[in-house]
Amino acid sequence: MTQFLPPNLLALFAPRDPIPYLPPLEKLPHEKHHNQPYCGIAPYIREFEDPRDAPPPTRAETREERMERKRREKIERRQQEVETELKMWDPHNDPNAQGDAFKTLFVARVNYDTTESKLRREFEVYGPIKRIHMVYSKRSGKPRGYAFIEYEHERDMHSAYKHADGKKIDGRRVLVDVERGRTVKGWRPRRLGGGLGGTRRGGADVNIRHSGRDDTSRYDERDRDRDRERERRERSRERDKERERRRSRSRDRRRRSRSRDKEERRRSRERSKDKDRERKRRSSRSRERARRERERKEELRGGGGGGDMAEPSEAGDAPPDDGPPGELGPDGPDGPEEKGRDRDRERRRSHRSERERRRDRDRDRDREHKRGERGGERGRDESRGGGGGGQDNGLEGLGNESRDMYMESEGGDGYLAPENGYLMEAAPE
């Protein structure tokens, strides 16, 4: 199929020319020996120049030294120019300096866009203006930023000198001074190494308020007003600080008082809770005492009730009722509510009267018991009361007085049970 391709494509498939044959090298280049070996410079020393005939070495000027040299040269040139201009400068013969020098005001740091009409409107408030001379550059014709204003009256110039300094015109605060070239002896302009004089040194705190035409330093009313205003601001700041301190102290006192009130309320709540707990504790103790008293009464009734309640029916005698109302007698208890109230009332009485009442009841029970024994009912009483009635308690042969003395001697710590004659401990109060 390649035979059908055009000649330009067939040329792409044509074989290259064969590589030409070159005879092999005997040695590589780095293996060959040089005819002249390396050597030092000793053979060439005689070709050098004699050091005695060579010129001395020159020292090159560094960059810092060159800049310092140019600066010194510039200062020297400027000093020469200033000296030359000082010899030629004569403000009294200057053709541009016209009018009365004592009525002329110097205005500097003026905005470059401020016009003469704008200056006239700003400075005419101090008095009528005779002439305004704005200074322009001779080469470019642009304003230099200062001007001379001549008033018709000298007092107007003094008023503008005192009050117009620092006035903002077109966004820039101007500097106002008197014309010193023709009024102050020995004064030089800034371009000749001078300055603005002794009245305008910078800010309001260092400016000297006198014209420089005399030696006396007089502070005008504006300075005194400024000082008074500064003192008033300082006093107001001090008063504000003191007021803030008082407010902070009052806030602290209120905060402390609120915290004390809160603490007092918390303590009162705790005291009320403690009182409630103590009241509940007392009520629980009173209920516990009532319960123990009730149990003690029940024990007393259960211990002697078997023989005592059966005895009146068989003996035929009415049992004595010497105890107070509400106490447990031989004929049975009263109602539960009245018994509880009577028990609480009797518990408040002295222990002495309680022991006496118990002794009286015991004596009555002993009498009833003996009367039942004489009637021949000993067996039934023993079977019903647990045999307590038949025991000899050692008081049978004693009379009533001896028995009372014995029970009084033993009644300090307990009472004598009528059933078995044992000494029983009194129930705790």
Automatic annotation (TrEMBL):
Cell location: Nucleus speckle; Nucleus, Nucleoplasm
GO biological process assignments: mRNA splicing, via spliceosome; regulation of RNA splicing
Any Pfam family the entry gives: RRM_1
PROSITE patterns, sorted: RRM (PS50102)
Biased composition range(s): Gly residues: 192-201
GO molecular function, one term: mRNA binding
Subunit-level organization: Component of the U1 snRNP. The U1 snRNP is composed of the U1 snRNA and the 7 core Sm proteins SNRPB, SNRPD1, SNRPD2, SNRPD3, SNRPE, SNRPF and SNRPG that assemble in a heptameric protein ring on the Sm site of the small nuclear RNA to form the core snRNP, and at least three U1 snRNP-specific proteins SNRNP70/U1-70K, SNRPA/U1-A and SNRPC/U1-C. Interacts with SCNM1. Found in a pre-mRNA splicing complex with SFRS4, SFRS5, SNRNP70, SNRPA1, SRRM1 and SRRM2. Found in a pre-mRNA exonic splicing enhancer (ESE) complex with SNRNP70, SNRPA1, SRRM1 and TRA2B/SFRS10.
Protein name: U1 small nuclear ribonucleoprotein 70 kDa
